[in-house]
């Protein structure tokens, strides 16, 4: 069970390393914010797939101000990278994050919900925002490999939007 989880995570990490990531352009604040938003997304996927809505609601109740702050920082990152059309890019990124996390869940089969129970247990044992941010950094959620050196521009839909977008 743990071996399958490690293999899935290793595969995602390898894919991200091959494709590159935005760490060269992200400051530590943006990186932390993306980690928190990724954690929130992973918990949401788990909550929906494994009927753990009560646990997700507990997480959001406890950390909502921190998650909202992280979301605003992610908004600012996308606005800086993509100007006035940042919502399109950010929405696509968030959708891709959820899809990758769902794919990891599908590949794990019945083990996914067992991992989800463990994940929620660990997250709900955290008491402070600093603990939650550190957890999100140390246990990064599976993310799509569309991040490149300075922004999210890898997919065809991103290139199409960029070509059609007027300059701000």
Shape: globular
The share of residues in extended strands comes to under 5%
The percent of residues in helical segments reads over 70%
Rg over CA atoms: 16 Å
The profile of the biggest β sheet is: 2 strands, antiparallel
Spans of at least 5 consecutive residues with low confidence: 1-24, 145-155
Order of helices and strands: HHHHHHEEH
Number of separate strands: 2
Structure description:
- With 168 residues, the chain is mainly alpha-helical.
- The protein has one domain (27-144).
- Helix content is 75%, strand content 2%.
- The protein is built from seven helices and two strands; from the N terminus they run ααααααββα.
- The protein has helices at residues 2-19, 28-49, 53-82, 86-108, 111-124, 129-138, 156-164; strands at residues 147-148, 151-152.
- A two-stranded antiparallel sheet has the order 1-2.
- Helix 2 (28-49) crosses helix 5 (111-124).
- The longest helix has 30 residues, at 53-82.
- The radius of gyration is 16 Å and the shape is globular.
- Mean pLDDT is 73; it is low at 1-24 and 145-155.
Briefly summarize what is shown:
The protein is mainly α and 168 residues long.
Attribute tags:
single chain; 168 residues; mainly alpha; two-stranded antiparallel ribbon; 7 helices; 2 strands; 75% helix; disordered N terminus
Topology at a glance:
Elements: H1 2-19, H2 28-49, H3 53-82, H4 86-108, H5 111-124, H6 129-138, E1 147-148, E2 151-152, H7 156-164
Helix pairs in contact: 2-3, 2-4, 2-5, 2-6, 3-4
């Amino acid at each position: 069970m743990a071996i399958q989880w490690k293999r899935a995570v290793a595969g995602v990490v390898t894919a991200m390393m091959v494709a590159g990531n935005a760490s060269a352009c992200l400051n530590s604040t943006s990186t932390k914010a993306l980690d928190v938003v990724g954690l929130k997304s992973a918990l949401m996927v788990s909550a929906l797939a494994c009927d753990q809505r009560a646990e997700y609601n507990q997480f959001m109740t406890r950390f909502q101000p921190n998650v909202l702050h992280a979301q605003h920082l992610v908004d600012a990152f996308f606005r800086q990278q993509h100007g006035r059309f940042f919502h399109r890019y950010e929405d696509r990124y968030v959708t891709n994050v959820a899809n990758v996390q769902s794919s990891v869940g599908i590949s794990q089969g019945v083990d996914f919900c067992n991992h989800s129970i463990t994940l929620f247990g660990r997250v709900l044992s955290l008491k402070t925002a600093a603990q939650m941010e550190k957890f999100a950094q140390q246990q990064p959620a599976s993310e799509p490999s569309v991040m490149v050196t300075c922004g999210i521009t890898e997919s065809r839909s991103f290139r199409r939007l960029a070509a059609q977008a007027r300059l701000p």
